[in-house]
Amino acid sequence: MLNYVVDRTSFLEPFVVDVDVDAATMPKATNHLVRRASAMRGHYADAAALDELIRNGDPLHYEVFETPVPEEYGHLMYCISKLQPGRVGNEFFMTKGHYHTVLETAETYLGLQGTGFMVMKTPDGTFNAQPISRGKMVYVPPYWAHRSVNTGDEPLVSWCVYPGEAGHNYGDIEDEGFPKRVLLENGQIVMR
Amino acid sequence: MLNYVVDRTSFLEPFVVDVDVDAATMPKATNHLVRRASAMRGHYADAAALDELIRNGDPLHYEVFETPVPEEYGHLMYCISKLQPGRVGNEFFMTKGHYHTVLETAETYLGLQGTGFMVMKTPDGTFNAQPISRGKMVYVPPYWAHRSVNTGDEPLVSWCVYPGEAGHNYGDIEDEGFPKRVLLENGQIVMR
After folding, report:
1. Domains in chain B: ranges and CATH
2. Taking CB atoms and an 8 Å limit, are A104 and B22 in contact across chains?
3. Segment 25-54 of chain A within 8 Å of chain B by CB
4. Tens of pLDDT along B79-120?
5. Residue A187, Cα to own-chain centre: how many angstroms?
6. Which residues, in sequence order, are CB contacts of A11 under 8 Å at separation 6+?
7. Which among A50, B14, B105, B114 would be 20 to 30 A from A13, CA to CA?
8. Is A133 near chain B, with CB under 8 Å?
9. Contact B20/A135, CB-based, under 8 Å?
10. Pick from A13, A20, A135: which is nearest to B135 by CB?
11. ipTM, 2 decimals?
């Protein structure tokens, strides 16, 4: 059985949010998560290259734009995820990645701009990576930790929807790491 | 408490689906729901006008494109909804509308093409309508029955996401009807 209780106090009126599918922006988002290079310590193989990036201006790494809905069963969270292009050493820019706290919840990522991969793993170590770009929707099924990787030269932007109660569990995947990294080697994109 | 049980046998590998946000299509959808005018009996005020439309070729009314995922808790259903333009008498083409069987589940509709409204009501009769078009996302909160209405002259297309266990309850809203209809009167779009 599930470990949450339906809260009928969370009744909402319907509403509209501007989601510009051409500019790949949510122009009036009220929640704006910003992660710079300095927020990514421990995630890349080449820590010295990350340190150098942080010293040289600590550039914007990725952003998440949302408007708030109740983080509880029945609601749907939604966001624009925007990951800048770049590399740390030979490793492409990526998000931290997370499991959902309620592990058995999925997420949909509809690509709006850019080119990259959704890199995924299960708690028992199975690895999967799917290409994402404008016009491709990646289905992240229940149980899969997921991270976006930008292998192109423009921002990788997607429209995400996930269940309200899902939550974010960054700690476990930070401890485990993902089984493969996405690297540029001799001009080729490789996973190893 | 909720009336479903987590089914861990439904483990899925991640996958990609083509969702063309420019053409507003899901070109490789394997599930394709088609509703012609003849499927809409009882929904429009002007039954004679609908009968005439049915006699004159029974035109395509709306379509839903999907690829299958398990219809159970944790998964997310997704679809392209495509509603043709037109009128039955002075009433704009619309979908049947439905509650979710699990009433406390939301849905997101991201507009990709066309112009119209998402018309909504609660079981206790509260009415709401929100504009939808390319670049507008309508949030249908838990408890709200919802119907798309096309007030433009091209198909109204949106990208929908809703919880796997939500289900469709067409019967109750068919019995109740929506409190207002969307009509063309003297060249103006009105709700009454």
Report:
1. 16-191 (2.60.120.10)
2. no
3. none
4. 999 999 999 999 999 999 999 999 999 999 999 999 999 999
5. 25
6. B141, B142, B143
7. B114
8. no
9. yes
10. A20
11. 0.93
